[in-house]
Amino acid sequence: MRVSRAQAEENRDRVITVASRLFRERGFDGIGLKDLMKGAGLTQGGFYKQFQSKDDLAALASRRALEEATRRWSDAAADSDDPLGAVAAFYLSRDHRGEKAEGCPIVALGADAARQSAEVRKPFEDGIRAHCEVLDEMMGGVAAKDPSSKAMAILSMMVGAVTLSRLIADEHLSEGFLDAATEEVRRIAARDDDN
User: Fold this and answer.
1) What is the pLDDT of residues 156-180, one digit of tens each?
2) 142 domain-assigned
3) Residue 59 belongs to domain spanning
4) Whole-number Å distance between alpha carbons of 118 and 103
5) Which InterPro entries does the annotation name (predicted)?
6) Are residues 147 and 136 in contact, defined by beta-carbon separation less than 8 angstroms?
7) Rounded distance, CA 68 to CA 181, Å?
8) 69, 21 in Cβ contact below 8 A?
9) In angstroms, rounded to a whole number, what is the distance separating the alpha carbons of residues 33 and 76?
């Protein structure tokens, strides 16, 4: 049975959305095409009609996840007198720590993405740059081609803190990483110099 062009686009979009969540939850190699397509309510047979390869889908799903992450930052910062503080509070929260399938794709897939093709790594590089631009703007700077050292330090610290907090079973130590990073983000953002 043939599907309309609109239905095909809707199916493709659904596969990208489902893959975005499942890759964050299980890793790029932790789920096969059959289970990805099943998760989207479709059969594996339609995969190659919509995507060139699993790398193609991984790149599209990663881009979607990173764009969603940037939107979540904007939502957290909206209507706040302290947008950076609001983003840090959201990102370095216990709730975000527990969000494997919906959480930060850099945390969930960063190390895994580094071992993937350039096609899959590219959305991560673009997303990291976008996150740094948002951080620079929140600190009163101008979004530039190259991020400031403050933005790079803050992003590195926040990603690292969430990653470490997810690895540690000891709740007190896990929360300690989140709390320490929150304090350090405030300190870095408050520094007058950009060194």
Assistant:
1) 999 999 999 999 999 999 999 999 9
2) yes
3) 5-190
4) 23
5) Homeodomain-like_sf, HTH_TetR, Tet_transcr_reg_TetR-rel_C_sf, YxaF_TetR_C
6) yes
7) 23
8) no
9) 34
Task: Give the dihedral sign, CA 129/130/134/135.
Answer: negative
Is residue 96 a part of any domain in this protein? Answer: yes
Would you say residue 173 lies in a domain? yes
State the angle between helix axes of 83-91 and 118-138 in degrees (0 to 180), rounded to the nearest 10. Answer: 140
Q: Per the structure, how many domains does the chain have? A: 1
- How far CA 93 is from CA of 64, 73, 135, in Å, comes to 22, 13, 18
Query: Are the CB atoms for 183 and 158 separated by under 8 Å?
Result: no
- Residue 183: half-sphere exposure toward Cβ, Cα within 13 Å: 5
Interior angle at CA 156, CA 150 and CA 162, nearest 5: 135
* ∠ Cα 4 7 10 (to 5°): 155
For residue 131, the tally of other CB atoms under 10 A from its CB is 25
CA angle 117–120–121, rounded 5-degree value:
85
Contact at 8 Å (CB) between 120 and 62? yes
- At 173, which CATH number? 1.10.357.10
Q: Is residue 91 part of a domain?
A: yes
Token output for 180: 């320490």
